[in-house]
Specification:
about 110 residues; elongated; about 75% helix; 2 domains; mainly alpha; 5 helices
Length: about 110
């Protein structure tokens, strides 16, 4: 029996409400890092909802799968970085930097004047 088979049996027990709180916490930690087991849990949950609906429970719902993909997140992080760099560059052009000396020298100049 593979490691994933053991976790899938834990998923079944969790969906049946048979796990203790520490066992549920361990399963949640594993599901956060294992996409195969997380997908298996979602599939089991969808199967249970489909069976409940076919048994006459029309209001049975499943937890929606996450819509955010890693590629989308990476794209938006890159866009945010580029916008931040562009805004920093424009601010530097508009207001200038601390000048040719050190920041401490310019700070002393500002306070003396």
């Amino acid at each position: 029996m593979s490691d994933h088979d053991e976790w899938v049996s834990q998923i079944d027990a969790e969906l049946d409400g048979e796990l203790t709180l520490p066992e549920r916490a361990a399963l949640a930690r594993h599901l956060a890092g294992c996409t195969a087991c997380a997908g298996a849990r979602a599939s089991h949950l969808e199967l249970r909802v489909a069976m409940a609906r076919s048994a006459g429970q029309p209001h049975a719902v499943t937890v929606p799968r996450p819509a955010i993909r890693a590629r989308s997140v990476a794209k938006w992080v890159a866009v945010a970085l580029l916008v931040g760099l562009g805004a920093g560059w424009l601010a530097h052009l508009w207001w200038g930097g601390p000048g040719p000396g050190s920041l401490e020298a310019s700070r002393a100049t500002f306070t003396v004047e």
